[in-house]
């Protein structure tokens, strides 16, 4: 049986998870999720469902009225009874709480995301004229502080790829596996570092998506938009080396089209790539927590330093809004401005 498109398969899995979560939510949430279906991805709806479940569990735990009924029995009019103060107390609560003996915390970004999910729910029913109040509109979004961009320096990139090839710092057990995956791992990390694609885009690549005539790869961006990403000679060499090995592999049924295969001969997962990057990067630097997304930041920084073209960087990275790119690479703008300070000479010494 031929494999379904990777991204379609992920969407199906999210839909199945979504159905399970909906069973734990008030019945009016079904109407809401059907209503936003055309404007949102399955992944977004699932994230909203998880966040809304946290809110309704909070109400069930702290509200005397809500505690007398099951969450699935909550009626739509409960949204009318919630005030701005209730929502602000909720945001304060999720800073730290314990569930099933597990401590859970939310920083400013976690709070902002959960408030966004709640706003979406309220906006839907308010605009549908099913409720008359929208207290979420009165609650300020938590102030988000800019995160420092963590990336590898050029010498660290070279050291990382050397480490992937040699595997010298790996444990004896890791070295056994390294001998079997070295060529694949070099191709994978070279591709991530040489194109800046997302890890989900990377694992979704099929063999037919590669075109060495133009050195391009067809990928599916966030939001379902198809794009062609171009790669240079180093990436080409690493991919061709891996494809020589890949030609002799016998994939499991349903995984025949996948470019990157695991030792089990199945499509490599996002989680597997995250663990793979962590394994190698931890041997290069212990001061930086390097993830696949940090490799993407490394590429974006290098591209911006070489070109100075923020619009090109935004386009290559697949950012819908150039302001997203500018926000991430504003520190590089500052470095460029500083370097300009001594470019213009006023007098010859």
Structure characterization notes:
The chain is globular. The longest helix is centred in the middle third of the chain and has 24 residues, at 172-195. The strands form two sheets. The chain has a three-stranded antiparallel sheet with strand order 3-4-5, with no helix packed on it. The N and C termini lie far apart (76 Å). It is built from 15 helices and five strands. Helix 1 packs parallel to helix 3 (42-62) and helix 8 (172-195) packs across helix 10 (233-246). The chain is mainly α.
Produce a short descriptive summary.
With about 350 residues, the chain is mainly α. Helix content is about 55%, strand content about 5%.
Which properties best describe this structure?
single chain; 349 residues; mainly alpha; DNA polymerase, domain 1; hpI Integrase, Chain A; 2 domains; 3-stranded antiparallel beta sheet; two-stranded antiparallel sheet; 15 helices; globular
Mean pLDDT: 89
Strand order of the largest sheet: 3-4-5
Largest sheet: 3 strands, antiparallel
How far the N terminus sits from the C terminus, by CA atoms, comes to 76 Å
**Helix share bin:** 40-55%
Radius of gyration: 24 Å
Shape: globular
CATH fold field value of the largest domain: hpI Integrase, Chain A
What structural class do the secondary elements suggest? Answer: mainly alpha
The tally of helices reads: 15
| Fourth CATH level, the homologous superfamily of the largest domain | Intergrase catalytic core
Number of strands: 5
Task: State the CATH architecture of the largest domain.
Answer: Orthogonal Bundle
Q: Could you say how many structural domains there are in total?
A: 2
Can you tell me the residue ranges where pLDDT is under 50 for at least 5 consecutive residues? Answer: none
The secondary-structure element order is HHHHHEEHHHHEEEHHHHHH
């Amino acid at each position: 049986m031929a494999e379904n498109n990777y991204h379609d398969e992920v969407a199906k899995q999210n839909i199945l998870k979504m159905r399970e979560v909906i069973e734990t939510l008030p019945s009016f949430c079904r109407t809401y999720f059907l209503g936003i279906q055309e404007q949102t991805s399955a992944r977004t709806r699932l994230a909203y469902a998880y966040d809304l479940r946290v809110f309704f569990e909070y109400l069930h735990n702290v509200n005397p009225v809500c505690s007398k009924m099951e969450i699935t029995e909550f009626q739509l009019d409960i949204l009318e009874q919630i005030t701005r103060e209730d929502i602000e107390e909720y945001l304060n609560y999720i800073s730290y709480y314990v569930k099933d003996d597990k401590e859970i915390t939310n920083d400013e970004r976690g709070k902002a995301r959960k408030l966004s999910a709640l706003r979406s729910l309220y906006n839907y029913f308010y605009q549908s004229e099913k409720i008359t109040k929208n207290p979420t509109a009165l609650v300020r979004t938590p102030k988000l502080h800019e995160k420092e961009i963590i990336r590898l320096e050029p010498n660290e990139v070279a050291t990382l790829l050397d480490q992937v090839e040699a595997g010298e710092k790996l444990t004896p057990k890791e070295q056994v596996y390294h001998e079997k995956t070295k060529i694949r791992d070099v191709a994978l990390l070279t591709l991530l570092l040489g194109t800046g694609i997302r890890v989900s885009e990377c694992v979704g690549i099929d063999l037919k998506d590669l075109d060495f005539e133009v050195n391009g790869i067809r990928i599916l961006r966030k939001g379902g938009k198809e794009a062609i990403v171009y790669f240079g000679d180093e990436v080409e060499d690493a991919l061709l080396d891996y494809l020589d090995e890949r030609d002799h592999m016998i994939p499991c049924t349903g995984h025949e089209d996948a470019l990157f295969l695991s030792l089990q001969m199945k499509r490599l997962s996002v989680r597997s790539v995250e663990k793979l990057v962590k394994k190698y990067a931890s041997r290069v630097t212990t001061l930086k927590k390097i993830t696949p997304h940090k490799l993407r930041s490394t590429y974006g920084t290098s591209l911006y330093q070489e070109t100075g073209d923020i619009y090109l960087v935004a386009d290559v990275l697949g950012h819908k809004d150039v302001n997203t790119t500018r926000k991430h690479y504003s520190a590089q703008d500052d470095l460029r401005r500083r370097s300009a300070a001594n470019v213009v000479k006023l007098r010859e010494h």
